[in-house]
Amino acid sequence: MITAEDIKLKRVAPAEGVSVEKLKRLIESGRVVIPHNARREGDIVPKAIGECMSTKVNVNVGTSKDYVNIDEEVAKARAAVKYGADTVMDLSTGGDLDEVRRRILKEVNVPVGTVPIYQAALSERAVVDMSSDDMFNAVRRHAEDGIDFVTIHAGVNLNTLERLRRSNRILNVVSRGGAFLVAWMIHNELENPFYKEYDYLLEIAKEYELTLSLGDGMRPGCIADASDRAKFMENIILGELVTLAREKGVQVIVEGPGHVPLDEIETSVKAIKHITDFAPLYLLGPLVTDIAPGYDHIVSAIGGAVACMYGADFLCMVSPSEHLALPSLDHIIDGTVVTKIAAHIADMVKAGQRERARQQDIEMAYARRNLDWKRQFELAIEPREAGRIRSNRPSESEACSICGDLCAIKLVKEFLKR
Amino acid sequence: MITAEDIKLKRVAPAEGVSVEKLKRLIESGRVVIPHNARREGDIVPKAIGECMSTKVNVNVGTSKDYVNIDEEVAKARAAVKYGADTVMDLSTGGDLDEVRRRILKEVNVPVGTVPIYQAALSERAVVDMSSDDMFNAVRRHAEDGIDFVTIHAGVNLNTLERLRRSNRILNVVSRGGAFLVAWMIHNELENPFYKEYDYLLEIAKEYELTLSLGDGMRPGCIADASDRAKFMENIILGELVTLAREKGVQVIVEGPGHVPLDEIETSVKAIKHITDFAPLYLLGPLVTDIAPGYDHIVSAIGGAVACMYGADFLCMVSPSEHLALPSLDHIIDGTVVTKIAAHIADMVKAGQRERARQQDIEMAYARRNLDWKRQFELAIEPREAGRIRSNRPSESEACSICGDLCAIKLVKEFLKR
Fold it and tell me: What superfamily would CATH give domain A4-352?
């Protein structure tokens, strides 16, 4: 009997350049996940995230308290997928949250994720007033709608909080979900329900085949806060939660930092991978400097490419608006393209992907050798900008307007007859 | 007696956060250079390039055969300096080359470099028709005008050429100066005059206190050609030429690749540094993928930040127009800002610079903690874009429009009273 699972594997394996058998083994070990809610409707392109798989890109969209325009957020989600996003997360915190989520689920054909605690927090007068029922009900509500993966900040427990208190962080907590839980735990003097009743969470996840993405509540919000004990404590808790999820047959991803200086990325990524038994690692950044607002998509591409070289699997797009404002549609597109470039750069040096990924670069090299411009545009990750640039300043020669007839490629081809 | 040299050192040392004594030792060892032509007029800001110094950024400008607009090239040079370029190179190959060069020298107050062989090549009917006198005369002419550093492809000799012939490169030679010399050597069946008569070149350099930047004629033009024997052969020759230059008291820089995959950068940079006795390393890129035309400033920032983490000292800006067209003024600015960001990211992890560089990031973290937007813009590497983004979508709260009142920083400050 051919199961839905078999169909999914047969579709994913060739897309990733691995055998069905290998993919199966990687999924069984938990090193690879394919987020897909049993209730999700429509023909959803399955995406494998983890070891030996191509680096995946998530794009966050969603309303805020200041800007509620559901049509625009749906348009952002569609544009993100058009420009190569593998998954979309709806992080809405303004307007009718159910409507945004359901519309996005309908309009895109990739896995969709959410952070249910946002809705739980908004269901009461104040964040600290939510009940543990509010939290779990939000998760169930999203699961019922067909959401494929949810971020749950279950690693923000009393132990982690104590490490945070003893730290000397400048920015303490910058994760929104993490901050909600820290505030809630302090105000109510209670353990984080997602940690305390993690078994109940796993039951819900199991029922809907919901993938858990264990949130990075302690992610450093600035370079000075990177790689500290609070973050490592959370990593340890997340590792234990990974084990429990796997025991119950629930797919699980781990989220990672944040703001990390360039020379700490290797240690950070490798430590998280070890501590969490090589769960797929989903990175928010890492941003490798704090002082480039307006250019954080580029800062994040630098950190992200390096992080994936060392084992990260899944990059969350950071837009040029990060730290400044809710992103515009254009910024979603810019950020998506740049993150796709970082993902490709990482795939070129990643076990299991390097030969496949480099094939495109090799073809580009031949297209350049042949001064075949049509082919160069076909091979470009995003050809529109390249086309605009070239047609704005054409050359009178068959080369480009930087060198014209003095093109090195032309000249050497003439003299070095090979 | 206080010499001009002493004045220069006293000006540079505090700018780099090192003592005059340490700077002096580094210059004497050749690990640091301060390019400055004895004939250069005006108050030129001295720039120290090399070990323990902050990462420097060069911006290329110049006419091409297809686009000759001297005013625009001068405007590009001025804009580059305004946005943080430490040096400017005039790579003009169209129109009155003497005029462009002289105007740029007058209009900017930073070291200016050129590639004299372009003028030599253009002085005859065809590139291969130039004489060795044409080549050396061009160098002397630029030196007389006050040019501070010149790229000389002296490592492209018969030995290197033989290694190239035995290679299976896709793109052979993509360096314009390198290609001129390869064509010339094959056509004339002669050794490269810059190699053969290197002593004469050193005499000219010595006379004008001209800094030599040993060109990267064999730089790989695509990922598939990276780290091969032709490039290593050239590195070896460049290393020998570094020794000879130092013996004659001529300041010397080494230029490096090119297109290099992310996981080969560490090896590439460290090998070049060793082989060339730790001469200041000037990088063109490295571009870590071939398939992102239109976004090569970002691709280069990724490679450049990583290369400088491993020891490169001097980054050549790559514009979004690379591989496509002569850059516009806007692209020069975009490229400069992004390269400055990469340089700062590297300084944050570089021996001799990390504490100083990170101070800005620490101040930004406090400004974010305090939601002090004015201060955040003051600390930004380039605040204009950040300001536009924020004012396009303001928040009704004191935070930003991503989270509004749900700002993690605000929330945690309220509950975690520290």
Answer: Radical SAM ThiC family, central domain (3.20.20.540)
Do the bridges between strand B56-61 and strand B87-90 make them parallel or antiparallel, or are there none, so unpaired? parallel
> What whole-number distance in Å separates Cα of residue B170 and Cα of residue B184?
21
Whether pLDDT at A1 is above 70: no
Higher model confidence: residue A6 or residue A389? A389
Contacts A262 to B, Cβ<8 Å: 305-306, 309, 345-346, 348-349
If you write DSSP's letter for every residue of A381-401 in order, what string do you get? SSHHHHHHHHHHS--SSSS-T
Rounded Cα gap, residues A351 and A330, in angstroms:
33
Test A328 with B393 for CB contact under 8 angstroms: yes
* B245-288 tens-digit pLDDT: 999 999 999 999 999 999 999 999 999 999 999 999 999 989 99
Instruction: Please state, in angstroms and as integers, the Cα–Cα distance from residue A86 to each residue in A59, A60, A317, A329, B368, following that order.
Output: 8, 11, 11, 17, 31
Measured CA to CA in angstroms, residue B284 lies from A133, B35, B281 at distances of 58, 18, 10
Under a CB-based contact definition with an 8 Å cutoff, are residues B96 and B67 in contact?
no
Query: For A337-346, what is the mean pLDDT?
Result: 98
Distances in Å between the alpha carbon of A348 and those of A341, A362, B133, B264? 11, 11, 45, 11
Q: Which member of B224, B298, B306 has the closest CB to residue A341? A: B298
Angle between helix axes A408-415 and A354-369 (nearest 10 degrees) is 80
Shortest CA distance from B384: residue in chain A: A294
| A170–B366 C-beta distance less than 8 A | yes
Environment class of A189 (CB within 10 Å of its CB; exposed 0-12, middle 13-18, buried 19+): exposed
Answer whether A395 sits within 8 Å of B369, measured CB to CB.
Answer: no
Interface probe for A, chosen from B160, B227, B290, B400 (most Cβ of A below 10 Å), is B290
Q: Which of B328, B338, B404 sits opposite A295 (nearest CB)?
A: B338
Is residue B156 a contact partner of residue B217, using CB atoms and an 8 Å limit? yes
The whole-angstrom separation of Cα A377 and Cα B337 is 26
Name the amino acid, one letter, at A347.
D
The structural domains of chain A, with segments of one domain joined by +, span 4-352, 355-416
A381 contact residues in B (CB cutoff 8 A): 291-292, 295
List helix spans (H) across B348-381. 354-369, 373-379
User: What whole-number distance in Å separates Cα of residue B63 and Cα of residue B84?
Assistant: 21
The H or E element that residue A72 is part of is: helix A70-82
Q: Taking all residues of chain A, what is their mean pLDDT, rounded to a whole number? A: 96
The structure tokens listed for A377 are: 């545009």
Q: Find the mean pLDDT for residues B41-46.
A: 94
pLDDT digits (tens, 9 = 90+) for A39-68: 999 999 999 999 999 999 999 999 999 999
